[in-house]
Every structure is written in structure tokens, then in C-alpha cells.
Amino acid sequence: YFLNRKSLYMLGLFLMAPVLMASTPASMCTPLKTLNDSLSHRRRYMKHNFPINYFIRVHHEEIFKLSNISKMKLKVEGLDELVLQRLWFQVNQGVLKKIIRVLPERHPSRPYTAELERRFRDAEGVFVQSHPPEVFQRELPETIQDIWDQLTEEPDRVPESSWRFASPKSLVDNLCHTMCCLFWECFSGTESSQDYCEASHSKKGRKTPSPELETRPTEPAEW
């Protein structure tokens, strides 16, 4: 009736497995894959339909890249993946709203961007429903809370030094790359998920590296 040390060890692994392996609920995969389908057309709608060197103004924190995820994991010991997923939704809902805001009603990319935002919101709704309410009431790590506060600050209260200029294409690229990293279980077995948490993966296939962000104090070019 007594378990030996090896049996206890194996029992411990069995009990821990669901915690370690189930960071993304299975119900999330359908809306995320649908979103990913739309993102596959981003080059056409987020680059070709915009003037050359067109930038929009965003929060510094809205330039959310794979390298940001790596830095946060190093800075916050034991950072929960769920916290990063929550932050991903908060960051990118603002990004998509800012892109839509600069598009005239008849712009060829507006229907695509509106559909992208709708699919994003669908995924966010499933994300919220897939976790108990108390998960979203937990106190965030100080580093993450600081980012959250800056994202939700009233625009007229944000210091000028905290704004950046970035192209719509680079922002949506970041959305796609970080999605595949943070929700990798939904994309396992697909080419887009291989090593997607490595910053170097997102640079494959580029002829020349694009600038990370644009800080010049001028507004984007007019249409």
C-alpha cells in the first residue's frame, strides 16, 4: 500500500501534465486558425494598398514583437503564458482600431481590416469564455501592469516621447508572429508554427531587414 519513490515521481508528473500542457484551450484553435487565414493576405492589403513609407502613430508598447516576449520572460520569473496571452489581446485590439481609424470608407483595405478585427474579436470572446472569471481578476506582475496602464491611458495624457510611428504591415506582421508563438498549440504541425518563438524565424525570407519602428515627429503621409 506504500508507493515507492519512483511511483511518487511518476504520479507527480501525471498530475502536473495538464497544467504544463494545457495553456491554450482547444476551443481557441478554431477562431485563431480563422484569424490566421485572414492574416495570410496581409501583404496585399497592409502593404500594396498603402503609399510607400506610410506610418501610423501607435503606443511604444503596441510594437509588440517576439523579442518583447523573450525580454518579459527573462525579466519576470515564472511569467504565466496566460498573462502574455491577455496582454497580446490588449495590445492588438488597439493596433487594429488605429489602422481602421486612418482608412477612408472607400479604401480598398478597409473591408479586409474590418473583417480582420471582427475575427480578432471573435477569438478574444472565445478566450474570455474559455477561462473562469477569476483568472481575469488576478493581479498582474508589476512589469505587465505598467505596460497595461500605458496602453489604456487617455491619448492626450500620453507623453509625446511614448509615441512611435510604424507601418500597418509591420504591426500586423507582429500580431501574426506573436500569435503563433503564444498559442503555438493551435498551429503545431503547420509550417508557420515551427520555432515561431524565435525572433530569427520571423525574418526568414526577407530580402532586407525593415526598420523596427519610426520615431520621426511627423504625421503619416496623406492619401
Automatic annotation (TrEMBL):
The keyword Glycoprotein does not apply. Residues 197-223 are annotated as: Disordered. One of its GO terms (cellular component) is extracellular space. GO terms for molecular function: macrophage colony-stimulating factor receptor binding. One of its GO terms (biological process) is positive regulation of cell population proliferation. Residues 1-22 form the signal peptide. Keywords: Signal. Residues 213-223 have a biased composition (Basic and acidic residues). PANTHER family: INTERLEUKIN-34 (PTHR28606:SF1). This is Interleukin 34.
